[in-house]
Amino acid sequence: MFDASTVTTLWWAVVVAGVYHGVNPGMGWPLAVSAALMDRKRGAMTKAIAMLGLGHFLAMLAILLPFSMMVFLVQRETEIRMGAGIIVIGMGIYLLINRKHPRFLSRVHPARLAWWSFLAAMAHGAGLMLVPIYLELCRYVGPQTTVMGHGHAAAQALIDSSVMTAFTVALVHTVAMTVSGAVLAVAVHRWLGLKFISRSWFNLDIFWALSLVVVGAFGIYSAHAGH
Amino acid sequence: MSANLKPDPTFYPSPRIAMEAPIENFAFTVMLSPDGSQSDGIAVVDLRTGSDTYGEIVHTVTTPYKGDEFHHFGWNACSSSLSPLSGHAFLERRYLIVPGIRSSRVYVIDVKEPLKAKIHKIIEPEEVFEKTGYSRPHTIHCGPEGIYVSTLGGGGADGTDGPPGIFIMDCQTFEIIGRYEMDRGKQDKHYDFWWNLPQDYMVSSEWGLPPQFENGVVPEDLLSNKYGHSIHFWDLRARKNVHTMDFGEQYQMALEIRPAHDPTRTYGFCGVVVDTTNLQGAIFTWWRDDDGNWQSKKVITIDPRPEDPENLPELLKGFSAVPPLVTDIDLSLDDKYLYVACWGLGEMHQYDVSDPFNPVLNGKVELGGIAKGARHPNGKPVVYGPQMVEISRDGKRVYWTNSLYSTWDDQFYPDEEGGQMVMARVGDDGSFALDPDFYIDFPKGLRAHQIRLEGGDCSTDSFCYPSV
Q: For chain B: N or C, fewer Cβ within 10 A?
C-alpha cells in the first residue's frame, strides 16, 4: 500500500498549488506592495504578507477539516472521494460559466487583509483545489485501516491522523503560497517597480477554473482506481 | 462583456506612471443642444500628433433621443481596477458612461475604435427611477464595486421626493444594481464625489435640488443661501457618512471634489461657486488631521470685478460687479497645479498647490467673460467663459470648454450662443498660455461641456499605489 514516490508527488502537488496561488496577484501579493508604499514603516509589508497568509491558511482549513471528519466513514471512502471530486469539478464549471467577480469582496476594508484573503480564497475555491490531493494523501499517511481493524479507538485514531494531515497540508500549502507571494512583493518593491504589477498580471480565470476541473477529475479517477 | 488577458495598458498603478504613459490621441467632448431641438452627442476630437485632422472633430456619436442634456460622463473602468481588492483587473477601458442630466437616460458608448464610436446600450429613465429612486444622473467614477453614478435628484417629477444620492452599476453588464448609501447622515443634496481607495474614504458635495437649477439659478434661493454649502466624508466601503462639514451657509454651491491623486496624501480641494457675502469665488482645502478628524480651510479667494450695471445681465445688475463664479477645478496628476475655472470673470487660473495650505497663483489665461468677451489669440470669439477643464496625464496640455449648464448660460450670457473647445500649454517651468492653433468651434446650435481624454485624464483615474 505504502508508496514513497506517490506520497512525495502528492506533497509536491500541495507545494506547487501553493506557489500557483501565491504568485497569482488575485490572491493578494500586490496588496503587500501597496501596504509597504502606503505605510512607509518597517514591517508594514511583512505584516501584510502574514495577514494574507493567515487568511489563506484559515480558508484551507475551513475546507479540508470537514473532509477530515468524514474519513472515519471508511466504508464510504470511495463515495466521499467521488463526491469531493464532483464538488471540485462543479466549482470549476461554476467559475467557467459565472465570470462575474464576487462583488462582496470589494466591500472589505483594505486594512482587513486576513479577512479579505480568507474570503478571496473561499470565493475562488482555492481550498477545494487541495481536497482531492488531500484525500489521496490520507490513504497513505497515518494508521492503515487494513491492519488496525475497526472500532471506536481505531476510528478516533483515524480522525486524529486525518486532522493532523489536514493541518499539515494547509500549512505546507500556505507556506509555499506566502513565500512565493512574498518573493514577488519584495522584488517589485525593491527592484522591479510598480509597472511589473500590470505587466505580469495574467488573466488566469479560465485556467484557474480548468485547474479545478482537472484536480476534481484526478480525485474521481484516483478514487475509482484505488477502490 | 469582454475581458483582457492582461490589465488594460491604460490602467496605471501610480499617478507618476500615468504621467509617463503615451500622450492622448483623442478627446471625447460632450455636445449638447440647449433647447433640445437637436440630439445631444459625443464629439471625438483628433489629438494625434502630426495628423492632418489634428484639433478637429473627426467623428460624432449622436443619440436617438432629444432633450437628454449631456453634462458629465466617465469611463467604465480605470486604474482603480489594479487593486486585487477590486477583483476586476481585466476590464477594458472601452466604454463611456454618459448620463442625460435632464432626461435621466444613461448611454453606454463603445469607443474602442474612437473613429467608429457607437452606442452600446441605453438605460431608459424608468429603469433608473425604479431601481434607485434617484433621478438626474451626473458624475461617473469607476471603483471597487463597479461604476458609481451620482445623481442630483430624488424621486418624483421634480426630483424632490427623497434625497439624491449615488447608485452603482455592474461594470461588466452595465445593469443598475441599486443605491450606494447605507447611512447617508445629513446628506440631502448631491453633486460631485471622489475618493481615496487605499485609505477607504469618499468625499461628496452639493449643488442644489432640481427646482433650484433646471430652469436657471433661483436668485432668491441663492441670496437666502439655500444651495448646498457642505461636503460629506464617507466610509467608502461601509457606505456610511461619517462626517458632514459645513463650510458656512454663505459658501453657496460647493461643487467639484478633487482629492490628491497620490493615495498616501490625505487632502484635497473643493471649489465654491460664490460667497454670497462678497461675491468672491473660493477654494477650500480639506484634510484629515493626525487624530483622524476631517478639517477644512479656505485657501484661495478670487475677487469679483466691478462693472457698470449697463453691461451686466439682469441677474447681476443690482450688484454692479462680475462674480468670478468658480464652476470647475482640476488637479494635475503630480498634485502640483490646480486649475480653477472662473466662468464669470472669463479667466482660467493656475495655482501652484505644492503646499496645499498656501496656494500660489502661478498663471492666468483670459478668455470670454461677462461684459468682457476676451478673444482667443487666433482672433476668434469664445462665448461664455472657461468652464469644464481637463488636464492631460503628463500635465502639459490643459483643455477646456465654455458652457456651464443650458439655462444658466442663458441667464449669465443672455446674448451669446455657441460652443468652443480650446487648449493651453504648460511649459516645464510652469508657464501657462493658450495654444493659438487649437480652437474648435462646435457645430451650430450645440454647446460643449465635459471632456474626457483617451487613456484617462486628471479627473478620471483613481490610483491604488503611491508615486514613488
A: N
CATH class of B15-453: mainly beta
B465 and A199 in contact by Cβ < 8 A? no
Give the 3-state secondary structure of residue A133.
helix
Residues A81-132 have pLDDT tens digits of 999 999 999 999 999 998 887 888 989 999 899 999 999 999 999 999 999 9
Q: Output the CA angle B372-B378-B380, nearest 5 degrees.
A: 50
Order of strands, edge to edge, in the sheet holding B267-275? B251-259, B267-275, B281-288, B294-302
Q: Nearest Cβ partner of A34 from B4, B86, B465?
A: B465
Number of structural domains chain A divides into: 1
For residue A28, the enclosing domain spans 4-226
User: What distance lies between CA A189 and its chain's CA centroid?
Assistant: 26
From A202's Cα to the closest Cα of chain B, the distance in A is 5
Distant-in-sequence, close-in-space partners of B153: CB < 8 Å, separation ≥ 6: B104, B134, B135, B136, B159, B160, B164, B209, B210
Q: Which of A56, A101, A195, A202 to mutate to test the interface with B (most CBs of B within 10 A)?
A: A101
Confirm if B217 and B194 have CB atoms less than 8 A apart. Answer: no
Spatial distance between the Cα atoms of B255 and B327, rounded to a whole number of angstroms: 7
pLDDT tens-digit profile of B107-131? 999 999 999 999 999 999 999 999 9
Tell me what the mean pLDDT of segment B406-430 comes to: 97
Q: What is the pTM of this model?
A: 0.95
Write down the domain spans for chain B: 15-453
Q: What is the pLDDT of residues A193-222, one digit of tens each?
A: 999 999 889 998 899 999 999 999 999 998
